[in-house]
Design a protein that fits this description.
Strand content: 15-25%
Largest sheet: 8 strands, mixed
Structural class: alpha/beta
Low-confidence stretches: 466-474
CATH class of the largest domain: Alpha Beta
CATH topology of the largest domain: Aminopeptidase
Mean pLDDT: 95
Pfam families: Peptidase_M17 (PF00883), Peptidase_M17_N_1 (PF21337)
Keywords: Aminopeptidase, Hydrolase, Manganese, Protease
Family: Belongs to the peptidase M17 family.
Radius of gyration: 24 Å
Number of helices: 15
InterPro entries: Leucine_aapep/pepB (IPR011356), Macro_dom-like (IPR043472), Peptidase_M17_C (IPR000819), Peptidase_M17_N_1 (IPR048816)
Distance between the termini: 38 Å
Organism: Sphingopyxis macrogoltabida (Sphingomonas macrogoltabidus)
Length: about 475
């Protein structure tokens, strides 16, 4: 496990190499103040202030070199502006000259993530350490880096080693570390109490048996907040089997579970004054003689009957039972995370989670949180006129729309049927994966929407915070 606390240190005047930040507007003025030797060197290497471009600045001796790098705006640093440097610079200490790194602390740590659990030979590289005078920002940034790494680790782990039982072990570690109460429902109790979770997972091998995993934490008189995650450890598509190319990344179909477990740990570690209820519906959507079938009608925990139009629309089924359970304790807020629809990726691509919310204030706070943390979201409409696409002749609702249109919206409308009236709810249809690397964001498992949700929760519930809306002082 990477120790992110080693990567950020208080600036106490230690010896450190300088990082100079420039943008297109400031570059010429900055260059005039450099030595003739540095100017000649930058001219020789053809340095220009383009995005993510950097150059080494020679020092008076071989060990006294520095770095200049281009950012979009030196007065408004993004979380990712130093991430490329953190990936490529040699180990050692660094200091941003003339300003504090701010949000870039997160990107500096995130860039040093690696997943090497399955590599025989692992190249070790010492930490690149960034100094800051903002000592109060270190612990919160480290916590977010660890939460992001947890999501990545869980999603990157192959399905054979990250089945429902392994997801349970991850939840158990988190609960034990922070004084939460873990409970797990499986077997006959799952079949009776959560019939849709059971139906989706009943075809899997015994060691991958389905279960509902719950963590309860916090004082009972605090506001109740429920976090619900889709934990499909592998999705074959069921009898409506996916093509092989469609199955290739389906180890990531438990990405929603990874997000809510990481978010729950952030809440507990920070001591946020809420009564937390974290629920993970964990199952493998496998194929066997006992697999649920197209045309079957399932009874849900809520009592609604669901006709199966497509066994590959299983995520909304397990979430329906988990959301129904969450609503029984009358929380004032429910957030769910799921790798739910390909339609969301067609609409928004891999970087932007589709956000649905039944409360405008909640949606606004989440969007602001995403902007503040450089963890963007895009709100999509809960367009009730499309609810008739989920109608069926023989059951209360169908699990698959009768049209190829608006697939991500109809999935969200299905989930909405399991949310209690007058309960604020937001649904994140997230990809949980990066198909290609960006600075600070490696290819593979990805936390998308996690820090946006955390920013919202801090503003709403952290009584120690004096902020008003996200990013503003009250």
């Amino acid at each position: 496990m990477i120790d992110y606390s080693d990567m950020i240190q208080p600036d106490q005047g230690q010896d450190a190499r300088a990082i100079h930040l420039v943008d297109k507007k400031s570059y010429d003025g900055w260059l005039k103040d450099r030595s003739a030797r540095e100017r000649a060197h930058l001219a020789a290497v053809g340095f220009k202030p383009d995005a993510f471009v950097h150059a080494i600045l020679p020092g008076d001796d071989p060990e006294r070199w520095g770095v200049v790098t281009t950012v979009a705006d030196v007065e408004n640093l993004s979380a990712w502006c130093l991430a490329k440097l953190a990936q490529i610079l040699p180990e050692g200490r660094y200091r941003v000259e003339g300003r504090q790194p701010g949000k870039a602390l997160f990107g500096w740590m995130s860039a040093q993530y690696r997943f090497d659990a399955y590599r025989k030979k692992v190249e070790t590289k010492g930490a690149r350490v960034l100094l800051t005078n903002d000592v109060g920002a270190i612990a919160p940034m480290v916590a977010e880096a660890r939460a992001t790494a947890l999501v990545r680790d869980l999603v990157n782990t192959p399905a054979a080693d990250m089945g429902p039982a392994s997801i349970e072990k991850a939840a158990e570690r988190i609960a034990k570390a922070h004084g939460g109460k873990l409970s797990v429902t499986k077997g006959e109790a799952l079949e009776q109490g959560y019939p849709m979770i059971h139906a989706v997972g009943r075809a899997a091998a015994k060691h991958h048996a389905p279960r509902l995993i719950e963590i309860v934490w916090g004082k009972e008189d605090h506001p109740r907040v429920a976090l619900v995650g889709k934990g499909i450890s592998f999705d074959s598509g069921g009898l409506d089997i996916k093509p092989s190319a469609g199955m290739r990344l389906m180890k990531k179909d438990m990405g929603g579970a990874a997000h809510v477990l990481a978010l729950a740990e952030l809440v507990m570690a920070a001591g946020l004054p809420v009564r937390l209820h974290c629920l993970v519906a964990a199952a493998e959507n496998a194929i066997s003689a006992d697999a649920f079938r197209p045309g079957d009608v399932l009874k849900s925990r809520l009592g609604l009957t669901v006709e199966i139009g497509n066994t590959d629309a299983e995520g909304r089924l397990v979430l329906g039972d988990a959301l129904a359970k969450a609503g029984e304790d009358k929380p004032e807020l429910i957030l769910d995370f799921a790798t739910l629809t390909g339609a969301a990726r067609v609409a928004l691509g891999p970087d932007l989670p589709a956000l649905f919310a039944n409360d405008d204030s909640l949606a606004d706070d989440l969007l602001k949180g995403g902007s503040e943390r450089d963890d963007p979201l895009w709100r999509m409409p809960l367009w009730d006129s499309y609810a008739d696409l989920l109608e069926t002749d023989i059951a209360d609702i169908g699990n698959a729309g009768s049209s190829a249109f608006a697939g991500t919206i109809t999935a969200a409308l299905f989930l909405k049927r399991f949310i209690p009236d007058n309960t604020a709810w937001a649904h994140f249809d997230t990809f949980a994966w990066r198909p290609s690397a960006k600075p600070g964001r490696p290819k593979g498992g990805a936390a998308l929407g996690l820090r946006a949700a955390w920013a919202m929760l801090q503003v709403r519930y952290d009584r120690r915070s004096q902020r008003g809306p996200v990013g503003e002082a009250s």
